[in-house]
Design brief:
The chain is of the alpha/beta class and 334 residues long. It is 42% helix and 14% strand. The model is unreliable at 5-10 (pLDDT under 50). It is a multi-pass membrane protein.
Length: 334
């Protein structure tokens, strides 16, 4: 008979797997449930719940763009630690960051699940507050999700803010410093190329975050999450294929990407939606100091953008062998 420790470990593993079955689709299905509940209650004797929430929603409309409303007990939920240990996920610091400044973290790659960014910056599972004392992370998320009743409050509890200039400026304007704006630079479009062994980043023409850094004088910090692309396989969707065309059209219409991913199941390893148990090491690089200028020229933006790419490549090359990336693999940019 299996020992008690094995039974407990298996229960924890099953718990983690159940979380993952819903996590990627949480943003799609849970949002629909929230909308359905909000609308459905209006036609029942509990209509007052939706009416009161609507009043609160109108009053609280601007909160997401003003830094959100994090709830520490949600960020410290024990379930996140189980999720961390599943892969496992680890946050790696390479340099101290001055808590008297505001920073922009450029996170790469986006991956399918964005597990590294979520666990490291939207929860305390990997100990962000202990590793970077005095800093508060705010990860950017599509504006769409902040327009969904009930769900908006959930995403704000983790410290997420809308991905628009107003929200970014609100985070970076803090005069005493201590804020970190986390941007998955490749965005949803990069998720369509997330698969094991992929090291191509959508960055060559992504310069908005660089301009933002100059306007606020916020140091840029490259972040590379080794293993982020290894946790899911994806149906082949080369550019020019009907599948890729459909995915890109849907992204333009909906603002979100729909990669057809797969990995393992709960009780078998051949097929399913559970991510593979492969380690993710999110390495935070050294800050690139930025001179503040309200209206930077295109040349100044291009120069800093090139410096950022060089520092990101340097970070990747310095750590890739340690985290299982072959020596002949290098980053490429599109």
């Amino acid at each position: 008979m299996p020992c008690n420790s094995t039974i407990v470990r298996n229960k924890h593993l099953l718990f983690i797997q159940i979380i993952f079955v819903s996590l990627r689709y949480l943003f799609y299905y849970f949002t629909q449930c929230c909308i359905a509940i909000f609308a459905g209650l209006l036609f029942t004797r509990f209509w007052l719940i939706s009416a009161l929430y609507a009043a609160w929603w109108a009053f609280d409309w601007e909160t997401p763009s003003k830094g959100g409303r994090r709830i520490q007990c949600i960020r410290n939920w024990p379930g996140w630690r189980y999720m961390r240990d599943y892969f496992p996920v680890k946050l790696v610091k390479t340099a101290d960051l001055d808590p008297g400044k505001n920073y922009i973290f450029g996170f790469h790659p986006h991956g399918v699940l964005v597990a590294g960014a979520f666990l490291n910056f939207c929860t305390e599972a990997t100990g962000f507050s202990k590793i970077f004392p005095g800093l508060t992370p705010h990860m950017m998320l599509l504006n769409l999700w902040f327009r969904v009743p009930f769900f908006r409050d959930y995403v704000m509890s983790g410290g997420l803010v809308p991905s628009d200039k107003e929200s970014a400026s609100s985070v970076l304007r803090k005069p005493e410093g201590g804020n970190v704006l986390v941007i998955a630079v490749g965005g949803a479009q990069e998720a369509l190329d997330a698969r094991p062994g992929a090291f191509t980043l959508l960055l060559a023409n992504r310069k908005g975050f660089v301009r933002l850094a100059i306007q606020h004088g916020a140091p840029l910090v490259p972040v590379f999450s080794f293993g982020e692309n290894e946790v899911f396989d994806q149906v082949e969707n080369p550019k020019g294929s009907w599948l890729r065309w459909t995915q890109e059209r849907l992204q333009k219409i909906m603002g979100i990407s729909l990669p057809l991913f797969h990995a393992r199941g709960i009780f078998q390893y051949s097929i399913g939606l559970i991510p593979y148990r492969r380690p993710i090491h999110t390495v935070v690089g050294k800050p690139i100091q930025v001179q503040k200028k309200h209206n930077p020229s295109n040349e100044e933006v291009d120069k800093l953008h090139q410096t950022y790419i060089e520092e990101l490549c340097k970070l990747f090359e310095e750590h890739k062998l340690k985290y299982g990336v072959p020596e002949d693999k290098h980053l490429s940019f599109i």
